[in-house]
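R.M. (postdoc): so does anyone remember the format we settled on? I'll just put the structure tokens first.
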């Protein structure tokens, strides 16, 4: 059972609305406050029953909350936290759903110094290329991994409250340092998105209208994530440049190896390259405990 009985969800797009719905589905005794800038989103949140009250001002949403979850793009998280920090009650814990952690946690440490509240970064590895409150899914976080990033100064009870939150909506939780998290996600999440975007841009060059009907399921499946929100992804890239650059350098080496095979190799070299790729993919998918549902 959740010890935190009053939770505020700030931002009711895909991630925030899914969290509110998940909490409502699995924790009947919670009071859930919501914040959304758009009147339409507030009306939908209220009509759906995902929140007990929804506000146009984030300060109103957090005044009585034990735990606050900020579900907005990364560059907006610190700005929103700055708006609410003076209204937080003593002992309140703030967390987020952002895909990068090091830069954000540094900013939040300065912001929360001298207050009676604290910030603990977290990142549920779940989502979709779809956006908005209408895409909210109460099972989005179930059977997924969530990374929590406490620091040396994080109070034990605060870290436990954030772990408890994500476990209550069905996630498995792992603690990592912010730097470890960002390096890992640069390889497993941020690089695939950039590759999908680059592939889409490459295919679209030169009369995309003539190519469209020739793009089959391979193109659709490989580039799916390129349809994601640019507002969200520009923040992710901007706050994880060094780690992503290192992964792109590694990927560039792989592409150059393929170019060399096409220039100088034979069919056996191509076959080996493709077979190794298939073996690597199958091994990763088979080892993954969170993509089997």
């Amino acid at each position: 059972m959740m010890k935190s009985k009053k939770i505020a969800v700030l931002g009711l797009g895909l991630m925030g609305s899914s969290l509110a719905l998940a909490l409502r589905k699995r924790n009947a005794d919670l009071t859930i406050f919501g914040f959304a800038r758009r009147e339409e989103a507030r009306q939908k949140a209220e009509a759906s029953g995902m929140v007990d009250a929804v506000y146009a001002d984030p300060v109103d949403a957090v005044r009585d909350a034990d735990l606050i979850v900020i579900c907005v793009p990364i560059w907006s998280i610190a700005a929103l936290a700055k708006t609410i920090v003076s209204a937080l009650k003593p002992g309140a814990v703030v967390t987020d759903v952002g895909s990068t952690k090091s830069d954000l946690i540094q900013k939040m440490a300065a912001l929360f110094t001298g207050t009676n509240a604290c910030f603990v970064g977290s990142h549920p590895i779940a989502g979709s290329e779809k956006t908005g409150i209408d895409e909210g899914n109460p099972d989005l976080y179930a059977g997924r991994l969530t990374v929590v990033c406490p620091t040396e100064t994080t109070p034990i009870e605060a870290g436990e409250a954030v772990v408890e939150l994500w476990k209550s909506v069905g996630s498995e939780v792992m603690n990592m340092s912010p730097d470890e998290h960002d390096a890992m996600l640069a390889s497993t999440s941020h690089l695939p998105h950039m590759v999908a975007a680059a592939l889409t841009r490459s295919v679209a060059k030169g009369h995309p209208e003539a190519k469209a009907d020739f793009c089959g399921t391979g193109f659709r499946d490989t580039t799916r994530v390129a349809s994601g929100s640019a507002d969200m992804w520009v923040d992710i890239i901007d706050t994880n440049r060094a780690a992503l650059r290192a992964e792109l350098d590694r990927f560039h080496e792989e592409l150059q190896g393929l170019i060399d095979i096409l220039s100088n190799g034979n069919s056996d070299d191509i076959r080996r390259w493709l077979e190794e790729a298939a073996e690597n993919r199958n091994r990763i998918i088979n080892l993954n405990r969170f993509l089997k549902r």
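R.M.: ...and that's the designed sequence above, right after the tokens. Also worth knowing: The longest strand covers residues 6-10. The two ends are 25 Å apart (CA to CA).
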